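Hi U.,

Before I forget, here's the chain from the pilot set. I'm dumping it here mostly so it's searchable later in email.
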Amino acid sequence: MKITRVEAIPFAIPYRKPLKFASGEVHVAEHVLVRVHTDDGVVGIAEAPPRPFTYGETQAGIVTVIEQIFAPQVVSLSLLERETMVARLARTVGNPAAKSALDMAVWDALGRTLDVAVTELLGGYTDRMRVSHMLGFDEPAAMVAEAQRVRERHGITTFKVKVGRRPVGLDTAVVRALRENLGPQVELYVDGNRGWTASESAAAMKEMSDLGLLFAEELCPADDVLGRRWLVSQLDVPFIADESAVTPADVTREILGGSATAISIKVARSGFTHSQRVHHLAEGLGLEVVMGNQIDGQLGTLCTVAFGSSYQLTARRAGELSNFLDMSDDLLTEPLEIRDGELAIRPGAGIGAEIDPDKLARYRQDT
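Structure:
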Protein backbone atom coordinates (compact mmCIF):
# COMPACT_ATOMS: atom_id res chain seq x y z
CA MET A 1 0.00 0.00 0.00
CA LYS A 2 2.91 2.37 -0.70
CA ILE A 3 2.29 5.62 -2.58
CA THR A 4 4.38 5.61 -5.74
CA ARG A 5 3.12 8.63 -7.68
CA VAL A 6 0.82 11.65 -7.34
CA GLU A 7 -0.78 13.43 -10.31
CA ALA A 8 -2.39 16.88 -10.38
CA ILE A 9 -4.35 17.36 -13.61
CA PRO A 10 -5.95 20.75 -14.31
CA PHE A 11 -9.30 20.73 -16.11
CA ALA A 12 -11.96 23.29 -16.98
CA ILE A 13 -15.70 22.79 -17.50
CA PRO A 14 -18.01 25.79 -18.14
CA TYR A 15 -21.08 26.51 -16.03
CA ARG A 16 -24.46 26.80 -17.73
CA LYS A 17 -24.89 30.08 -15.89
CA PRO A 18 -22.43 31.94 -13.65
CA LEU A 19 -22.72 31.44 -9.91
CA LYS A 20 -22.77 34.82 -8.17
CA PHE A 21 -22.31 35.58 -4.49
CA ALA A 22 -20.93 38.31 -2.25
CA SER A 23 -17.26 37.25 -2.38
CA GLY A 24 -17.09 36.62 -6.14
CA GLU A 25 -18.57 34.76 -9.07
CA VAL A 26 -17.63 31.64 -11.03
CA HIS A 27 -18.16 31.12 -14.77
CA VAL A 28 -15.95 28.06 -15.35
CA ALA A 29 -15.07 25.18 -13.02
CA GLU A 30 -11.28 25.38 -13.25
CA HIS A 31 -10.50 22.49 -10.93
CA VAL A 32 -7.72 19.96 -10.42
CA LEU A 33 -8.08 16.17 -10.52
CA VAL A 34 -5.73 14.55 -8.02
CA ARG A 35 -4.70 10.91 -8.49
CA VAL A 36 -2.69 8.90 -5.98
CA HIS A 37 -1.05 5.72 -7.34
CA THR A 38 0.15 2.81 -5.18
CA ASP A 39 2.52 -0.09 -5.72
CA ASP A 40 -0.51 -2.40 -5.76
CA GLY A 41 -1.81 -0.72 -8.90
CA VAL A 42 -4.61 1.09 -7.04
CA VAL A 43 -5.44 4.68 -7.99
CA GLY A 44 -7.31 6.95 -5.56
CA ILE A 45 -8.96 10.12 -6.86
CA ALA A 46 -10.30 13.43 -5.56
CA GLU A 47 -11.07 16.93 -6.80
CA ALA A 48 -9.53 20.25 -5.76
CA PRO A 49 -11.69 23.34 -6.47
CA PRO A 50 -9.60 26.51 -6.08
CA ARG A 51 -11.35 29.55 -4.63
CA PRO A 52 -8.88 32.45 -4.92
CA PHE A 53 -11.35 35.00 -3.50
CA THR A 54 -11.79 32.95 -0.34
CA TYR A 55 -8.65 30.89 0.33
CA GLY A 56 -6.13 32.41 -2.08
CA GLU A 57 -5.55 29.28 -4.17
CA THR A 58 -5.53 29.13 -7.96
CA GLN A 59 -5.65 26.18 -10.31
CA ALA A 60 -2.03 26.67 -11.36
CA GLY A 61 -1.00 27.09 -7.74
CA ILE A 62 -2.65 23.83 -6.71
CA VAL A 63 -0.93 21.91 -9.52
CA THR A 64 2.45 23.44 -8.65
CA VAL A 65 2.31 22.89 -4.89
CA ILE A 66 1.21 19.26 -5.31
CA GLU A 67 3.78 18.42 -7.96
CA GLN A 68 6.74 20.31 -6.51
CA ILE A 69 6.20 20.20 -2.74
CA PHE A 70 3.54 17.72 -1.60
CA ALA A 71 4.16 14.76 -3.91
CA PRO A 72 7.83 14.35 -2.90
CA GLN A 73 6.75 14.41 0.76
CA VAL A 74 4.16 11.61 0.46
CA VAL A 75 5.66 9.28 -2.15
CA SER A 76 6.92 6.11 -0.38
CA LEU A 77 4.47 6.55 2.51
CA SER A 78 1.91 3.82 3.19
CA LEU A 79 -1.78 4.65 2.77
CA LEU A 80 -2.04 4.00 6.51
CA GLU A 81 0.52 6.66 7.42
CA ARG A 82 -2.02 9.45 7.15
CA GLU A 83 -0.90 11.27 10.30
CA THR A 84 2.65 11.37 8.98
CA MET A 85 1.32 12.78 5.72
CA VAL A 86 -0.73 15.42 7.55
CA ALA A 87 2.32 16.46 9.58
CA ARG A 88 4.48 16.78 6.47
CA LEU A 89 1.89 18.79 4.55
CA ALA A 90 1.43 21.08 7.57
CA ARG A 91 4.99 22.36 7.08
CA THR A 92 3.60 24.35 4.14
CA VAL A 93 1.27 27.18 5.14
CA GLY A 94 -2.20 27.42 3.56
CA ASN A 95 -3.15 25.54 0.38
CA PRO A 96 -6.25 23.92 1.94
CA ALA A 97 -7.84 22.62 -1.27
CA ALA A 98 -4.58 21.07 -2.48
CA LYS A 99 -3.96 19.35 0.86
CA SER A 100 -7.57 18.19 1.13
CA ALA A 101 -7.73 16.64 -2.34
CA LEU A 102 -4.51 14.75 -1.67
CA ASP A 103 -5.87 13.54 1.68
CA MET A 104 -9.17 12.37 0.17
CA ALA A 105 -7.43 10.63 -2.74
CA VAL A 106 -5.40 8.67 -0.16
CA TRP A 107 -8.60 7.66 1.66
CA ASP A 108 -10.14 6.63 -1.67
CA ALA A 109 -7.07 4.53 -2.49
CA LEU A 110 -7.25 2.92 0.95
CA GLY A 111 -10.92 2.05 0.48
CA ARG A 112 -10.23 0.59 -2.95
CA THR A 113 -7.33 -1.44 -1.56
CA LEU A 114 -9.44 -2.87 1.27
CA ASP A 115 -12.57 -3.15 -0.92
CA VAL A 116 -14.50 -1.01 1.57
CA ALA A 117 -16.49 2.20 1.03
CA VAL A 118 -14.92 5.35 2.50
CA THR A 119 -18.21 6.02 4.31
CA GLU A 120 -17.77 2.74 6.19
CA LEU A 121 -14.14 3.53 6.99
CA LEU A 122 -15.17 6.89 8.44
CA GLY A 123 -18.25 5.90 10.43
CA GLY A 124 -20.92 4.22 8.31
CA TYR A 125 -23.96 5.91 9.86
CA THR A 126 -26.16 5.97 6.74
CA ASP A 127 -25.89 5.75 2.95
CA ARG A 128 -27.49 9.04 1.88
CA MET A 129 -28.13 12.68 2.73
CA ARG A 130 -30.89 15.19 2.13
CA VAL A 131 -29.83 17.88 -0.34
CA SER A 132 -29.76 21.65 0.08
CA HIS A 133 -29.61 23.74 -3.10
CA MET A 134 -27.72 27.03 -3.28
CA LEU A 135 -29.45 29.98 -4.96
CA GLY A 136 -26.99 32.57 -6.28
CA PHE A 137 -27.71 36.23 -6.98
CA ASP A 138 -30.42 36.96 -9.53
CA GLU A 139 -33.69 38.83 -9.79
CA PRO A 140 -36.34 37.66 -7.30
CA ALA A 141 -38.57 36.11 -9.98
CA ALA A 142 -35.64 34.19 -11.46
CA MET A 143 -34.53 32.86 -8.06
CA VAL A 144 -38.07 31.76 -7.23
CA ALA A 145 -38.36 30.05 -10.62
CA GLU A 146 -35.07 28.22 -10.09
CA ALA A 147 -36.14 27.01 -6.64
CA GLN A 148 -39.47 25.80 -7.97
CA ARG A 149 -37.77 24.00 -10.86
CA VAL A 150 -35.25 22.31 -8.56
CA ARG A 151 -37.99 21.24 -6.15
CA GLU A 152 -40.15 19.79 -8.93
CA ARG A 153 -37.31 18.04 -10.76
CA HIS A 154 -35.20 16.80 -7.85
CA GLY A 155 -37.48 16.91 -4.81
CA ILE A 156 -35.21 19.34 -2.95
CA THR A 157 -36.94 21.27 -0.15
CA THR A 158 -34.00 23.05 1.51
CA PHE A 159 -32.49 26.18 -0.04
CA LYS A 160 -29.46 28.24 0.89
CA VAL A 161 -29.96 31.81 -0.36
CA LYS A 162 -26.94 33.95 -1.19
CA VAL A 163 -27.20 37.49 0.20
CA GLY A 164 -24.78 40.26 1.15
CA ARG A 165 -23.53 41.95 -2.01
CA ARG A 166 -26.59 43.94 -3.04
CA PRO A 167 -28.74 46.49 -1.17
CA VAL A 168 -30.16 44.84 1.94
CA GLY A 169 -33.73 45.51 0.85
CA LEU A 170 -33.30 43.58 -2.40
CA ASP A 171 -31.85 40.56 -0.63
CA THR A 172 -34.57 40.46 2.00
CA ALA A 173 -37.21 40.87 -0.72
CA VAL A 174 -35.79 37.79 -2.48
CA VAL A 175 -35.98 35.70 0.67
CA ARG A 176 -39.55 36.89 1.33
CA ALA A 177 -40.54 36.03 -2.24
CA LEU A 178 -39.08 32.56 -1.84
CA ARG A 179 -40.99 31.97 1.37
CA GLU A 180 -44.27 33.26 -0.07
CA ASN A 181 -43.98 31.18 -3.24
CA LEU A 182 -42.52 27.98 -1.78
CA GLY A 183 -44.60 27.78 1.38
CA PRO A 184 -43.82 27.08 5.04
CA GLN A 185 -42.66 23.48 4.55
CA VAL A 186 -39.51 24.51 2.66
CA GLU A 187 -36.36 25.16 4.71
CA LEU A 188 -34.61 28.45 3.95
CA TYR A 189 -31.37 29.90 5.26
CA VAL A 190 -29.17 32.80 4.20
CA ASP A 191 -25.44 33.08 3.51
CA GLY A 192 -23.82 36.51 3.32
CA ASN A 193 -20.23 35.46 2.50
CA ARG A 194 -19.13 38.31 4.80
CA GLY A 195 -20.80 40.87 2.50
CA TRP A 196 -22.77 42.93 5.05
CA THR A 197 -21.66 44.92 8.07
CA ALA A 198 -22.83 43.79 11.48
CA SER A 199 -25.47 46.53 11.61
CA GLU A 200 -26.74 45.72 8.11
CA SER A 201 -26.91 42.06 9.09
CA ALA A 202 -28.91 42.84 12.22
CA ALA A 203 -31.36 44.99 10.27
CA ALA A 204 -31.78 42.33 7.59
CA MET A 205 -32.38 39.53 10.08
CA LYS A 206 -34.92 41.67 11.93
CA GLU A 207 -36.72 42.33 8.64
CA MET A 208 -36.79 38.58 7.94
CA SER A 209 -37.69 37.51 11.46
CA ASP A 210 -41.15 36.32 10.40
CA LEU A 211 -39.85 34.06 7.61
CA GLY A 212 -38.84 31.09 9.74
CA LEU A 213 -35.21 30.95 8.65
CA LEU A 214 -33.19 27.87 9.57
CA PHE A 215 -29.71 29.46 9.83
CA ALA A 216 -27.72 32.57 9.07
CA GLU A 217 -24.21 32.02 7.68
CA GLU A 218 -21.20 34.37 7.60
CA LEU A 219 -23.27 37.54 7.27
CA CYS A 220 -20.43 39.86 8.25
CA PRO A 221 -16.63 39.60 8.39
CA ALA A 222 -15.11 37.55 11.19
CA ASP A 223 -12.38 40.15 11.71
CA ASP A 224 -15.05 42.60 12.88
CA VAL A 225 -14.69 40.89 16.24
CA LEU A 226 -16.88 43.11 18.41
CA GLY A 227 -19.49 43.72 15.72
CA ARG A 228 -19.86 40.03 15.00
CA ARG A 229 -20.20 39.10 18.68
CA TRP A 230 -22.82 41.83 19.04
CA LEU A 231 -24.71 40.48 16.02
CA VAL A 232 -24.64 36.84 17.09
CA SER A 233 -25.87 37.73 20.59
CA GLN A 234 -29.05 39.19 19.05
CA LEU A 235 -30.00 36.34 16.74
CA ASP A 236 -32.60 33.71 17.48
CA VAL A 237 -31.30 31.31 14.81
CA PRO A 238 -27.93 29.49 14.74
CA PHE A 239 -25.14 31.54 13.16
CA ILE A 240 -22.89 29.35 10.99
CA ALA A 241 -19.15 29.97 10.80
CA ASP A 242 -18.00 28.81 7.37
CA GLU A 243 -14.84 30.23 5.78
CA SER A 244 -13.89 31.69 9.18
CA ALA A 245 -13.75 28.24 10.82
CA VAL A 246 -11.70 25.85 8.68
CA THR A 247 -9.58 24.17 11.35
CA PRO A 248 -10.43 22.88 14.84
CA ALA A 249 -8.54 25.87 16.26
CA ASP A 250 -10.68 28.23 14.15
CA VAL A 251 -13.85 26.54 15.40
CA THR A 252 -12.72 26.82 19.01
CA ARG A 253 -11.93 30.53 18.58
CA GLU A 254 -15.24 31.37 16.88
CA ILE A 255 -17.43 29.43 19.30
CA LEU A 256 -15.70 30.37 22.56
CA GLY A 257 -15.43 33.98 21.38
CA GLY A 258 -19.19 34.16 20.83
CA SER A 259 -18.83 34.82 17.10
CA ALA A 260 -20.76 31.75 15.92
CA THR A 261 -23.05 29.04 17.24
CA ALA A 262 -22.84 26.48 14.40
CA ILE A 263 -20.30 25.42 11.76
CA SER A 264 -20.04 24.31 8.16
CA ILE A 265 -17.73 21.43 7.28
CA LYS A 266 -16.36 21.39 3.74
CA VAL A 267 -14.22 18.39 2.87
CA ALA A 268 -12.88 20.33 -0.14
CA ARG A 269 -10.91 22.52 2.28
CA SER A 270 -10.31 20.14 5.22
CA GLY A 271 -10.22 16.69 3.60
CA PHE A 272 -11.50 13.66 5.44
CA THR A 273 -8.81 13.64 8.12
CA HIS A 274 -9.20 17.23 9.35
CA SER A 275 -12.97 17.14 8.79
CA GLN A 276 -13.11 14.23 11.25
CA ARG A 277 -11.39 16.39 13.85
CA VAL A 278 -13.72 19.31 13.25
CA HIS A 279 -16.74 16.97 13.45
CA HIS A 280 -15.62 15.44 16.73
CA LEU A 281 -15.00 18.87 18.22
CA ALA A 282 -18.44 20.06 17.12
CA GLU A 283 -20.03 16.95 18.53
CA GLY A 284 -18.30 17.52 21.86
CA LEU A 285 -19.39 21.16 21.96
CA GLY A 286 -22.98 20.34 21.00
CA LEU A 287 -22.94 22.44 17.81
CA GLU A 288 -25.22 22.30 14.80
CA VAL A 289 -23.31 21.23 11.69
CA VAL A 290 -24.06 21.53 7.98
CA MET A 291 -22.06 19.93 5.18
CA GLY A 292 -21.03 22.77 2.90
CA ASN A 293 -19.93 22.86 -0.71
CA GLN A 294 -17.03 24.67 -2.36
CA ILE A 295 -18.84 24.71 -5.71
CA ASP A 296 -17.57 21.19 -6.28
CA GLY A 297 -18.10 19.06 -9.32
CA GLN A 298 -19.58 15.58 -9.06
CA LEU A 299 -16.41 13.98 -7.71
CA GLY A 300 -16.15 16.57 -4.95
CA THR A 301 -19.86 16.16 -4.22
CA LEU A 302 -19.38 12.40 -3.80
CA CYS A 303 -16.63 13.14 -1.29
CA THR A 304 -19.00 15.43 0.63
CA VAL A 305 -21.82 12.90 0.80
CA ALA A 306 -19.34 10.14 1.71
CA PHE A 307 -18.25 12.12 4.76
CA GLY A 308 -21.62 13.62 5.66
CA SER A 309 -23.40 10.26 5.63
CA SER A 310 -20.75 8.77 7.93
CA TYR A 311 -21.99 10.47 11.10
CA GLN A 312 -25.34 11.14 12.71
CA LEU A 313 -24.51 14.80 13.35
CA THR A 314 -23.53 15.61 9.77
CA ALA A 315 -26.38 13.57 8.28
CA ARG A 316 -29.01 15.34 10.39
CA ARG A 317 -29.28 18.42 8.18
CA ALA A 318 -29.50 18.73 4.41
CA GLY A 319 -26.06 19.02 2.83
CA GLU A 320 -25.06 21.40 0.04
CA LEU A 321 -24.80 18.74 -2.66
CA SER A 322 -26.31 20.18 -5.83
CA ASN A 323 -23.89 22.77 -7.23
CA PHE A 324 -22.86 20.32 -9.94
CA LEU A 325 -26.30 20.76 -11.51
CA ASP A 326 -25.11 24.13 -12.84
CA MET A 327 -22.13 22.62 -14.67
CA SER A 328 -22.42 21.89 -18.40
CA ASP A 329 -20.67 18.51 -18.05
CA ASP A 330 -18.53 16.48 -15.66
CA LEU A 331 -15.80 13.85 -15.56
CA LEU A 332 -17.60 10.85 -14.05
CA THR A 333 -18.49 7.80 -16.10
CA GLU A 334 -21.87 7.65 -14.36
CA PRO A 335 -23.43 11.05 -13.54
CA LEU A 336 -24.89 11.70 -10.11
CA GLU A 337 -28.65 11.82 -9.73
CA ILE A 338 -30.60 13.49 -6.93
CA ARG A 339 -33.84 11.63 -6.25
CA ASP A 340 -36.63 12.68 -3.89
CA GLY A 341 -34.40 15.37 -2.46
CA GLU A 342 -31.63 12.93 -1.49
CA LEU A 343 -28.21 11.95 -2.79
CA ALA A 344 -26.91 8.46 -2.00
CA ILE A 345 -23.33 7.30 -1.74
CA ARG A 346 -22.08 5.18 -4.60
CA PRO A 347 -21.86 1.43 -4.02
CA GLY A 348 -18.43 -0.11 -4.18
CA ALA A 349 -15.00 0.54 -2.75
CA GLY A 350 -13.55 3.93 -1.88
CA ILE A 351 -15.62 6.93 -2.90
CA GLY A 352 -17.32 4.92 -5.65
CA ALA A 353 -16.32 7.21 -8.54
CA GLU A 354 -14.70 6.45 -11.87
CA ILE A 355 -13.32 9.03 -14.30
CA ASP A 356 -14.35 8.92 -17.97
CA PRO A 357 -11.03 9.02 -19.87
CA ASP A 358 -12.58 10.64 -22.94
CA LYS A 359 -14.08 13.47 -20.90
CA LEU A 360 -10.84 13.99 -19.03
CA ALA A 361 -9.00 14.19 -22.35
CA ARG A 362 -11.55 16.75 -23.59
CA TYR A 363 -11.40 19.06 -20.59
CA ARG A 364 -7.85 18.74 -19.22
CA GLN A 365 -5.65 21.78 -19.70
CA ASP A 366 -2.13 20.37 -19.46
CA THR A 367 -1.95 18.80 -22.91
